[in-house]
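Need a sequence for this fold. Nothing fancy.
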Protein backbone atom coordinates (compact mmCIF):
# COMPACT_ATOMS: atom_id res chain seq x y z
CA UNK A 1 0.00 0.00 0.00
CA UNK A 2 1.26 3.50 -0.81
CA UNK A 3 0.59 6.75 1.01
CA UNK A 4 0.76 10.29 -0.32
CA UNK A 5 2.93 12.75 1.54
CA UNK A 6 1.05 15.24 3.69
CA UNK A 7 1.17 17.87 6.37
CA UNK A 8 -1.04 16.94 9.35
CA UNK A 9 -3.11 20.10 8.89
CA UNK A 10 -3.74 19.88 5.12
CA UNK A 11 -4.94 17.34 2.55
CA UNK A 12 -2.40 14.88 1.08
CA UNK A 13 -0.23 15.92 -1.86
CA UNK A 14 -1.13 13.68 -4.83
CA UNK A 15 2.34 14.01 -6.41
CA UNK A 16 4.44 13.01 -3.37
CA UNK A 17 5.04 9.48 -2.05
CA UNK A 18 5.38 9.21 1.75
CA UNK A 19 8.19 7.00 3.01
CA UNK A 20 8.06 5.57 6.53
CA UNK A 21 10.33 7.76 8.68
CA UNK A 22 10.18 5.15 11.46
CA UNK A 23 11.72 2.39 9.30
CA UNK A 24 15.37 1.71 10.30
CA UNK A 25 16.24 0.62 6.75
CA UNK A 26 15.00 3.92 5.36
CA UNK A 27 17.04 5.84 7.93
CA UNK A 28 20.20 3.93 6.94
CA UNK A 29 19.53 4.60 3.25
CA UNK A 30 18.99 8.32 3.95
CA UNK A 31 22.26 8.52 5.91
CA UNK A 32 24.12 6.92 2.97
CA UNK A 33 22.43 9.25 0.48
CA UNK A 34 23.09 12.40 2.51
CA UNK A 35 26.73 11.37 3.00
CA UNK A 36 27.11 10.88 -0.75
CA UNK A 37 25.53 14.26 -1.51
CA UNK A 38 27.66 15.98 1.17
CA UNK A 39 30.80 14.78 -0.63
CA UNK A 40 29.65 16.65 -3.75
CA UNK A 41 28.23 19.96 -2.52
CA UNK A 42 28.23 22.53 0.27
CA UNK A 43 24.68 22.05 1.53
CA UNK A 44 21.48 20.07 1.35
CA UNK A 45 17.97 21.48 1.53
CA UNK A 46 15.07 19.47 2.90
CA UNK A 47 11.67 21.07 2.45
CA UNK A 48 9.07 20.25 5.07
CA UNK A 49 11.76 18.67 7.29
CA UNK A 50 9.59 19.00 10.38
CA UNK A 51 7.17 16.41 8.97
CA UNK A 52 9.75 13.69 9.70
CA UNK A 53 10.09 14.51 13.41
CA UNK A 54 8.80 11.55 15.42
CA UNK A 55 5.88 13.31 17.10
CA UNK A 56 4.64 14.95 13.90
CA UNK A 57 5.10 11.80 11.79
CA UNK A 58 3.24 9.74 14.41
CA UNK A 59 0.40 12.29 14.57
CA UNK A 60 0.14 12.37 10.77
CA UNK A 61 0.40 8.64 10.09
CA UNK A 62 -0.95 7.12 13.29
CA UNK A 63 -0.67 3.38 13.82
CA UNK A 64 0.18 2.83 10.14
CA UNK A 65 3.70 4.12 10.84
CA UNK A 66 4.44 1.39 13.39
CA UNK A 67 6.35 1.79 16.64
CA UNK A 68 7.91 5.21 17.22
CA UNK A 69 11.73 4.98 17.50
CA UNK A 70 13.40 6.33 20.62
CA UNK A 71 15.69 8.60 18.57
CA UNK A 72 14.15 11.40 16.55
CA UNK A 73 14.58 11.21 12.78
CA UNK A 74 16.97 14.14 12.33
CA UNK A 75 19.17 13.30 15.32
CA UNK A 76 19.64 9.85 13.76
CA UNK A 77 20.19 11.06 10.21
CA UNK A 78 22.35 14.11 11.09
CA UNK A 79 23.91 13.09 14.44
CA UNK A 80 26.43 15.87 15.01
CA UNK A 81 27.54 19.36 14.07
CA UNK A 82 25.86 21.34 11.27
CA UNK A 83 27.13 24.72 10.07
CA UNK A 84 26.50 27.40 7.50
CA UNK A 85 27.95 30.78 6.68
CA UNK A 86 27.35 33.79 4.50
CA UNK A 87 28.73 37.16 3.46
CA UNK A 88 26.71 40.32 2.78
CA UNK A 89 28.81 43.33 1.84
CA UNK A 90 31.51 43.44 4.56
CA UNK A 91 29.49 41.48 7.12
CA UNK A 92 30.27 37.79 7.65
CA UNK A 93 28.38 35.27 9.74
CA UNK A 94 29.08 31.70 10.76
CA UNK A 95 26.50 29.58 12.58
CA UNK A 96 27.46 26.25 14.15
CA UNK A 97 24.86 23.97 15.78
CA UNK A 98 25.15 20.71 17.67
CA UNK A 99 21.84 19.23 16.60
CA UNK A 100 22.03 16.30 18.95
CA UNK A 101 21.53 15.12 22.53
CA UNK A 102 25.27 14.50 23.22
CA UNK A 103 28.36 16.69 23.22
CA UNK A 104 30.07 16.90 19.83
CA UNK A 105 33.30 18.24 18.40
CA UNK A 106 34.20 19.06 14.81
CA UNK A 107 36.40 21.13 12.56
CA UNK A 108 34.23 23.49 10.51
CA UNK A 109 35.87 24.43 7.22
CA UNK A 110 35.02 28.04 6.43
CA UNK A 111 35.04 28.48 2.62
CA UNK A 112 36.40 32.03 2.45
CA UNK A 113 39.84 32.09 0.77
CA UNK A 114 40.48 35.64 1.96
CA UNK A 115 40.73 34.35 5.54
CA UNK A 116 44.27 33.14 4.89
CA UNK A 117 47.14 35.13 6.37
CA UNK A 118 44.98 37.24 8.71
CA UNK A 119 43.75 37.05 12.30
CA UNK A 120 39.97 37.08 12.70
CA UNK A 121 37.71 37.97 15.62
CA UNK A 122 34.68 35.75 16.19
CA UNK A 123 31.99 37.46 18.26
CA UNK A 124 29.26 35.10 19.46
CA UNK A 125 26.03 37.10 19.21
CA UNK A 126 24.27 34.77 21.67
CA UNK A 127 26.79 34.44 24.49
CA UNK A 128 28.63 37.74 24.05
CA UNK A 129 31.94 35.86 24.13
CA UNK A 130 34.63 36.41 21.52
CA UNK A 131 37.86 34.81 20.41
CA UNK A 132 40.62 35.44 17.90
CA UNK A 133 41.50 32.76 15.36
CA UNK A 134 44.03 32.33 12.59
CA UNK A 135 42.34 32.68 9.20
CA UNK A 136 44.61 30.17 7.48
CA UNK A 137 43.69 27.53 10.05
CA UNK A 138 39.95 28.29 9.77
CA UNK A 139 40.15 28.03 5.97
CA UNK A 140 42.46 25.04 5.64
CA UNK A 141 42.20 22.86 8.78
CA UNK A 142 38.84 24.15 9.96
CA UNK A 143 37.64 26.00 13.04
CA UNK A 144 37.59 23.61 16.00
CA UNK A 145 34.30 23.66 17.89
CA UNK A 146 33.22 21.75 20.99
CA UNK A 147 29.51 22.06 21.75
CA UNK A 148 27.32 20.51 24.41
CA UNK A 149 23.94 18.98 23.56
CA UNK A 150 21.74 21.34 21.49
CA UNK A 151 24.23 24.23 21.84
CA UNK A 152 25.13 26.65 19.07
CA UNK A 153 27.33 29.59 18.14
CA UNK A 154 26.18 32.54 16.05
CA UNK A 155 29.47 34.17 15.11
CA UNK A 156 29.96 37.57 13.55
CA UNK A 157 33.36 37.26 11.87
CA UNK A 158 35.58 40.29 11.31
CA UNK A 159 39.25 40.93 10.55
CA UNK A 160 41.46 41.94 13.49
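Here you go.
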Amino acid sequence: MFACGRDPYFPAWPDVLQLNAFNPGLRRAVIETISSIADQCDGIRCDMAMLLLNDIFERTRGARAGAKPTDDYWTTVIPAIIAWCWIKDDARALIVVNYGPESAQARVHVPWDELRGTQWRLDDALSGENCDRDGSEMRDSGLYVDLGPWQCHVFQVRAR
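For context: The longest helix spans residues 24-38.
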